[in-house]
Amino acid sequence: MNQNPTKHTKVLIIGSGPAGYTAAVYAARAMLNPILVHGMEPGGQLTTTTDVENYPGFAKVIQGPWLMDQMKDQAKAVGTEMIEDHISSVNFKSKPFEAIGESGKKYTADSIIISTGAQARWLNLESEKKFRGFGVSACATCDGFFFKEKTVAVVGGGNAAVEEAMFLTKFASKVKLIHRRDKLRAEKMLQKKLMDNKKIEIIWDSVVEEIVGDENPKNVKGLKIKNVKNNNISDLKIDGLFIAIGHDPATQLFKDQLKMDKEGYLITKPDSTETNVPGIFAAGDVKDKIFRQAVTAAGMGCMAALEAEKYLAS
Asked: Which end of the chain is more exposed for a tag (fewer CB within 10 A), N or C?
């Protein structure tokens, strides 16, 4: 008997998280019997976010991983088949669409919803790689706890960087925000909160050149920072470094198959989740670099499922 039979579905959802799970809920309730394929750690970026205060419907603070578990269970309860596999290649050029899993399983689908999300970007310094997990992190909510009463630095100037810096003040005694420009991109209300916080110091017009630390045991001791205006290098004593310089969408898989912008985000039609290939839809951070919120991702997941249903009906 063939161990890896082809599985066919009307709607294949690739990726979990608010977009994928919400798409699954709507597709399942439309009796489309969707299959959702997720990786080893389902739930996307929200699984690395502890306190969620901005997801509508919860008066008290909720936990990101809990919210994702609830969405997953809801999608299952209404009839979504969940499969753990990693899609390694796709063919959208012929119908039905095809996706091949690392398991060897082949999935064919009449429509596909892509909700593969995005991942944090790194500085790509040798020293950063070396100390990643030993004082260098891209997730303050995951690792902030380890820096009680210590000095940490955050690199970046957008909402994420400001939010990480604010969050870290819960633990750290001092937070230094390093930004390569002379003003922040973050929204005004966040900037005000940042400026009002006595624990935070902003280091303008500067970039991290090198991360310095001990070998044995491995830990971060400081940074070499370059001022981009005068090229002066200075030393900064810190115990931890958090990188918050943006994200890269998980779209490598769809190169040469779907239209993307220069940063790799999938392009959809205005007011729609439909890509340039009819029957293929994209929802969440894989196509959204502006809002990047759980609620907007969930909203797009709903749109994608409704559009897929309409597509299949026609």
From this structure: N
